[in-house]
Amino acid sequence: MADVQVNSVSVEDGRVVVVSPKTQKSNKVRLCLKAVRTPLFILISLALFGLSIEAYFINRLYYLVPPISTQTTNTTGGNHLIGNSDICGMDYKDGQLVVQNKGHYYVYSKTQVSVRAREIFLHSVKVKYPYYDVDITLMQSNQLLTTYEQNMSNSYLGGVFYLDQDCHLFVTVIPEPDMQNNPFSNFFGAFMI
């Protein structure tokens, strides 16, 4: 048998319209595409908007982060750390790092000292706030050497702290250490996160 096409006849606004089955299918497809087009346009627009916002923040972050600083050697009296100090974005005054801008900082210190047997080695990082009279210990490491000979001892301290402007950071080592004169063995610094 031959395929017989049946056309539908409808009356719209007083006109007779003949609708074939092919026209009905293409109308359904057009309606589906039209229904999908708007949400798809909205999703693509949101994705592009998100990428532009991300590019803005990355660009802003790139210009806010200072370049890596050079390191300077510092020598201080007393029982403060003698060695290398990273002073990026800070002032260095009297053996202490002075915070220029308040914020969260990663503060770190490493010491390598020669200590005698049966001696406690205390390495600490302290902060002096302008509105407190006492020094506040941020980090501390205690080591008791139990061997009967002189040894080299290492201590590394690091952590994130919120620091105000004009805070003074410094390192103390007790007892007065025999420091190694190697900038890679003893260092102290801080950088804003």
Structure description:
This protein is an alpha+beta fold. 23% of the residues lie in helices and 44% in strands. The protein has 1 helix and 13 strands. The chain has one helix at 21-64, and strands at 8-12, 15-19, 71-74, 83-86, 90-93, 96-99, 103-115, 120-128, 136-144, 151-163, 168-174, 178-179, 187-192. The strands form 3 sheets. Strands 3, 4, 7, 10, 12 and 13 form a 6-stranded mixed sheet that branches. Strands 5-6-11-8-9 form a 5-stranded antiparallel sheet, with no helix packed on it. A two-stranded antiparallel ribbon has the order 1-2. The model is unreliable at 67-86 (pLDDT under 50).
Brief overview, please?
By secondary structure, this protein is of the alpha+beta class. The chain has one helix at residues 21-64, and strands spanning 8-12, 15-19, 71-74, 83-86, 90-93, 96-99, 103-115, 120-128, 136-144, 151-163, 168-174, 178-179, 187-192.
